[in-house]
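*Target chain*
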Amino acid sequence: MTTRTESWLMRRWGKWVVPYAALWITMLAGGVLVVLLAVLSAEVYDNVVDDAGLANLDKPTLAFMQQLRSPGLDSFVTGFTNIGGGIGMPILASILTAWLIWTSRTWRPLILIGAAAAVSTTATTLGKKLIGRNRPDHADAVPPYEDSPSFPSGHTLNTTVVIALVVYLACLQVKRTIARVALIAAGVIFVAAMGMSRVFLGHHWMTDVIFGWLLGLAWVAIVIMAHRLFHVLRHREQAGPAPTFDHPANLREGRASRTAAKTDGGPAGSASGADGSTDGSVHGTTQDDVGARGPTGGPPAAG
């Protein structure tokens, strides 16, 4: 039983960890960097936000938002902001990730979004504990009130990370430029509205939200870079498509195929072509490989 379990684990390691090594390493390094930025923001906060933020930006913005409030609008914004909370965002992220997994036939959306969300949540928790900034007074807020530390805005940070990555992966699925523009515009509006809803309700200061946006976008940029690096290295290895439900390929199998082709007398270049034709590819690129051309000759499928 132990030998069978070890054999199963080794097969899983070879198919789902080794091909993603560059992705895991880059995301791990980037995640550590983002968490460190959240920790170091405590020093920046003490020197900047306390001295100028409340007087020059936070209080005037909160005062302006108070003028816009009404019972109906307050209820609507409260319902909307709950989407980005500790219950709403995991549900929304799970639904969107499941959709991306189904459309792309690969687990990569789960890896990207799951790991990115875990890091953003960690950065939020550490930032709140280290800085301990007070939220606006309850007299200036809309119930239900929140008493946890204010900086940074977790709703804003986590929503920025999840929605930005969903939009990125979804854009890899569509061919039409207008559809991509619509996806990006919808994502920007959603993320911006989520951040401003926190200020509107008096649950966060404007500087909390701005930092959430900036830190979230920095982390998203690192994740996307890791994703693209993953594909560059896979193409350089000429390993064929990365693992999907329909094609559980990996680096070792790709090398084995090329070796077999060379043994049969085919040149190195034709070996790559032979592998590609077996998987339904053209000129050494495969239809399942993200970063290459898509299955219809258009943009790649989501990775």
In short: Residues 231 and 291 are 6 Å apart (CA to CA).
